[in-house]
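SAMPLE LOG
Freezer: B-3
Tube label: C17
Construct: single chain, 509 aa
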Amino acid sequence: MSGTANPLRQGLVEDRSPEPCTVVIFGASGDLTKRKLVPALFSLFTERLLPPSFAVVGYARKAMSDDDFRAEMHEWCKKFARHKPTDDQWARFAPCLSYQTGDYEDPEAYAGLKARLAAIDTERGISGNRIFYLSTPPATFPIAVQRLAESGLTDRRGNDKFTRVIIEKPFGTDLDSARALNAHCRSYLREDQIYRIDHYLGKETVQNLMVFRFGNALFEPLWNNRFVDHVQITGAEAIGIEGRGGYFDLAGIVRDMVQNHLFQVLCLTAMEPPVSLAGDDLRDEKVKVLKALRPIPEGRFDDFTVRGQYRAGSVAGKPVPSYQDELGVNAGSTTETFVALKLFIDNWRWAGVPFYLRSGKALPKKVTEVALVFKDTPHRLFGERSVSEPNVLAIRIQPDEGISVRFGSKVPGNTLDIHPVNMEFRYGTSFGAEPPEAYERLQLDCMLGDQALYTRADEVEASWRWISRLHHAWAQRSSGEVPRYEAGSWGPDEADLLLRRDGHVWRRP
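STRUCTURE (predicted):
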């Protein structure tokens, strides 16, 4: 902005300073570490949001020296960090990085890690505060938590030092497995040490849902069944499964996107105002939403759900093979790559308002948004010239983060012709700064001990309780047929019919 201060940024709190700590990343040779975790930490470092005494220890089975790890992370930060490293910045950040080779099951490896951390504490003046980030395959979560506890790395009773464990998604694959993992983790850790991460909660626009609703007297009075006709939540991906067939064919889009990401967006859209922004107060309200989700009646799942699977087509001019031909997909697979859901939240605020959720792979573009579609005016004062499209308030989570309001306006001229127009707010243009990456915010929150944007045990189980009934119903179907849709389209025709039966249509975001 050519050196001129942006007035919209005046008064913003820029700094939150955590205590000195070491972040140990399990799975340090994986893509998440390279593309997200270390680049996020580097961006926090360049903005001076990390403590002066700070360290990162990569831990994985792959043999690597400290210097090799630093060189590899340097290259990935050049590609993916929000702030690209200069030579001077990297020279100051690189000494924070170390690497420890070790297995996730071997107790001796954890003894070696414990000794290494003690040495780093002494060298860098960290005094024992630690965060263990489990960026590993889900099957390793239980043994990693157990070995950390057995080695004494998570025991902080009787002193003022903290140990926290971040656990990546997926947290379970159904209600039973989520309950078992919760019970296992809580047998070794306190709930205030467990940080179940969903990176969608770290996205700037997801957080702005709360600010938009509860910080503006203009909108909150309209946020209920008196004015809102229905709500649409879309989480679309333009890519197919891109070599992840082995994982995705076991998971499907509901486990991969809906149970975590879209349900989090649903909760923040529908919840009541929390007592405060403290972690438990905020999460209490999200749990209430999940508990209020109306169960789909037995035998009527087809009235409320649509599955789909993409066939060959093209997205943005590039050919996409059929899901059935993707590497790692089982022959004749019925795994869904698209889902549309019709939900009801049985409480006073939302009684009678349908929430339509959809998510899919190989759709026309990548976009995540929430759209509140308002009821029509009670009387069409302008007759046939009245705007035929409803008012819509849309919150774009990605890409091009922002908020738009669609309303009717008079067309210039001598007649009262009404036409829909959009009023838009964009983060990038309004604040003159790129919003931080989700993993920046979430890792910083963990260092600060703030669990507000992490999911709690009962929240995870409440979401799986609703989702597991859906999977059970699909598994009991006598026919395994799943509607097909062409890659590059917005899903199967049955998804359009789901809304047309109620007199609605999907937005084209």
